[in-house]
Amino acid sequence: MADYDVTFIERDDTEARFLVRGVTPAFANGIRRAMIADVPTFSIDTVRFIENSSVMFDEQLALRLGLIPLTTPLGGEFDEDDTVTLALDVEGPETAYSGDLVSSDDMVQPAEEDVPIIDLKDGQRLELEADAVLGYGQDHAKHQGGVAVGYRHLQRVEVVGDRDEFRDDEPEIVRGVIETEGGELVPTEEFDNDLTERYPDSEVEVHDVENAFVFDVETDGSFDVDTLVQAGIDSIRGRAEELKEAVQL
Amino acid sequence: MMVPVRCFTCGNVIGGEWEEFKERAREGDEDPEEVLDELGVERHCCRRMLVSHEDLVDVVAPYQ
Amino acid sequence: MSYKCSRCKRDVELDSYGGVRCPYCGHRVLLKERAPDVKEVDVE
């Protein structure tokens, strides 16, 4: 196997930015697609309305419930199409929040507690039971664990001379992460995405670094970023091994 | 009606930020730009979800 | 068929002879009540 080199530039629970060297553009895109479409998450799929006297229709509320992220353990505890039941019972005047959902399984809980579902007025009531299903992003966007997953080339900035003294004051905008001649990795937000801020007196050239990609990954809260990236890569590896076995005699 | 749970474009969950945004920028007198920055709503697709939203539940409630 | 009168809020039973009219207050606007059974909805 080829040698990959992964460097994290920013990293916390729900957001990360990392550099991968030594992958082809096709493989980089494969990682991106795997993180979006092939990492399963729990999401509400069927709702049974026992009472709904709110101002919104059952179908509208069901759609909102489906979009609420639910924490999803990916350690093999659940298989595809496994269901977990959640219940909600709120009586007005009060707002029903995602945190009011009561889950039958401690591991599958609303990832955010304060998403308003519906504002209930005096005398209105919402009582329902919902089945959450473990599904894949390729089947429905509500099952996507990765949000705004993307990548760009790493850009190398080289100083090629002094800047003309009487040049126009035009900004040179770059976005993503640059690599300086010293090999330092600098996110462009640090200099306001403008190279003239960082190199005020030099003429610079910017080139894409071959086979080096900077990934931006965010999760919707179903799991942390590490889990998402790992699960995406595991899914590629799993399919590669399946293919290898299938073509062997 | 109610705030969308997620951003239409990128799918980021923004519903949870609405009540604070409403309290501080709509009903309060803080600058919406600063409030959104503090709430961590970074992309302009997510920001427009909150900036352009209007609660209509109170308007339709009497006609139930 | 069970309805609710929109003026006096009383439950009204309609048959095919009486026409659309509340027998208690004569109001002609009747609202159909939501069925009491559980409704199952698929999230799409």
Q: How is this structure best described in words?
A:
The complex is a heterotrimer of chains A (249), B (64) and C (44). Chain A is α+β, with helices and mostly antiparallel strands and 249 residues long. Chain A has two domains: 5-38 and 147-218, RNA polymerase, RBP11-like subunit (Gyrase A, domain 2), CATH 3.30.1360.10; 41-139, Beta Complex (RNA Polymerase Alpha Subunit, Chain A, domain 2). Chain A contains four helices and twelve strands; from the N terminus they run E-E-H-E-H-E-E-E-E-E-E-E-E-H-E-H. In chain A, the strands form three sheets. A six-stranded mixed β-sheet of chain A has the order 1-2-12-9-10-11, sandwiched between helices. Chain A has a four-stranded antiparallel β-sheet with strand order 3-8-4-6. Chain A is flat and about 75 Å long. The mean pLDDT of chain A is 92. Chain B is mostly helical and 64 residues long. Chain B has one domain. Helix content of chain B is 47%, strand content 0%. In chain B, helix 1 packs antiparallel against helix 2. Chain B is flat and about 35 Å long. The mean pLDDT of chain B is 92. Chain C has 44 residues and is mostly beta strands. Chain C has one domain (1-35): Rubrerythrin, domain 2, CATH 2.20.28. Helix content of chain C is 0%, strand content 32%. Chain C is built from no helices and four strands. Chain C has strands at residues 2-5, 11-13, 30-32, 39-42. At the A-B interface, helix 2 and strand 7 of A face helix 4 of B. Strand 3 (41-52) of chain A pairs antiparallel with strand 4 of chain C, so a sheet runs across the interface.
